[in-house]
Amino acid sequence: MGIGLFMTIMTIYYYMSNDPIPQKSDVLYRILLDAGNPDTVDDSDQSIPRQITYIDATNLIAEQPDAKQAVMYGATGVVNPDSTTLKPMEAPVRATTYRFFDLFDVPFEYGASWDRSADESALPVVVISKSLNEKLFGGTDSLGRSIEVSAVSFQIVGVLQDWTMLPKAYDLNTGPFDPPAEIFVPFTKAVEMNLPRRGNTNCWKPVPTNEYSDFLNSECVWIQSWVELRTTEAYDRYSSFLTGYIEEQKLLGRFERPNRSRLFPLTDWLVFREAVPPIVFALLASSFMFLLVCQCNTLSLLMAKLLSNAREIGIRRALGASRTAAFFQIGVEAFVIGVLGSVLGLLFTLVGLEAMTYLLRDEENIEQFFRLDTPLILMGVAIAIVSTLIVALYPMFRASYIAVASQLRASA
Fold it and tell me: Label partner for 257 (CA 20 to 30 A): which of 42, 170, 331, 406?
């Protein structure tokens, strides 16, 4: 039971703390610009805005057109199917620039991303998910066909394969474990359409009017920005560019606080934003303590078995068995207990994961966290056997030092 509970929580933690893109997580950086409230006295990283403004997003793309970077935000659109059997449906949208798909190694079933000209001209082109393609077109090659999103006709240029990034590092604001968007449109086109934003929008000072253009030119932060920097030289060049950019903006009356812009490596960004909720760490610690209690019980049982078999061990020693033989007798018994414990523990783990799946059945994408793979199975077996052998060390030493003479007198 101790193994079962611990491995159930460990499985959840394992997937939640997963490196979502290990082949390049060390070269992807989240861009943070400190365009926050100058009256704030907090100088820690926690006071830096988590996102950037529309002004800065468009400037970064315009001033570094050849950099492998992307800006984006979550939105919502209404898809009007060209079908009498399907009703209009609301779908999550990711408004982004064409480099997004290269940055995060997004796989395509058909076609590819749009190009830079589509971003610059706000062309109505779209990349859709495999699931949406199956709903609308039965999974066939739909390149060149059109779909209507929020009353605008878009031409399909790409269809994704099944793709999920866990955690969803590129945008933690809409939920680190939410499923990806079903529709991807050029950032400029989404802004032009004023698609409803899906995520956090924070403003440290009021927007002058309710006009959309005033909102775009405000200090409200609502856009995520990422860049790929593969070498130290590339990192230094981009850092220098950001420093120079901030100095230019200061001359325009912006960035009134000291320069604390940051390039966060992807894995550091996940830690900084606590992609794994603290409650998961607490549950993992609690389950580990329960496992220790269970192993203390195992120690008590091994000691009781040793005391009941002390006479047998004494006779074996008198007949010529060595201390090492007595030591390993208990060790073999502990190993067998560990193996059996791991098998039963993994069965309890499967039951626990099924229970968690049932309890959280209304949560999207949750099944990703509740499955055992080979590394987790091997981890469970190793923990069960090693922990049992560790608690068995004391009974093993006691067995090797049993007094032979006293046991023989007792048997006589």
Answer: 170
Bridge partners of 152, per DSSP, are 149
| Strand-pair partners of 264 | 30
End-to-end CA distance of the chain: 42
- The model's confidence at residue 319, banded by pLDDT at 50, 70 and 90, is low
> What are the angstrom distances between the C-alpha of 397 and each of 157, 195, 302, 404?
70, 71, 12, 14
- By CB atoms closer than 10 A (0-12, 13-18, 19+), residue 258 is exposed
**DSSP state letters, 341-383:** HHHHHHHHHHHHHHHHHHHTTTSTTGGGGS---HHHHHHHHHH
Residue 391's CB: how many other CB atoms inside 10 A? 22
What secondary structure, in 3-state letters, does 164-180 show? CCCCCCCCCCCCCCCCC
Instruction: List, in sequence order, every beta strand (DSSP E) within 141-261.
Output: 146-149, 152-160, 183-186, 221-228
Q: Are 37 and 48 in contact (CB under 8 A)?
A: no
d(CA 344, CA 371): 17
30 membership: H or E segment, kind and range: strand 28-32
* pLDDT surpasses 80 at 411: no
How much is the average pLDDT of 79-106? 91
For the segment 249-306, what is each residue's pLDDT rounded down to a tens digit? 999 989 888 888 889 999 999 988 888 888 888 989 999 999 999 888 888 888 887 7
pTM score, two decimals? Answer: 0.81
Distant-in-sequence, close-in-space partners of 222: CB < 8 Å, separation ≥ 6: 51, 53, 54, 73, 197, 199, 200, 201, 202
Among positive and negative, which fits the CA dihedral 374, 380, 384, 390? positive
Q: Is 32 helix (H, G, I), strand (E, B) or coil?
A: strand
**H-helix or E-strand spanning residue 264:** strand 262-265
Q: Which residues pair with 69 in a beta bridge?
A: 227
Matching residue, tokens 């195992």: 298
| Measured CA angle at 111 (ends 71, 167), to 5 deg | 45
Q: How far is the C-alpha of 124 from the C-alpha of 130, rounded, in Å?
A: 19
For residues 326 and 310, is the Cβ–Cβ distance under 8 A?
Answer: no
What are phi and psi for residue 122, nearest 5 degrees?
Answer: 55, 50
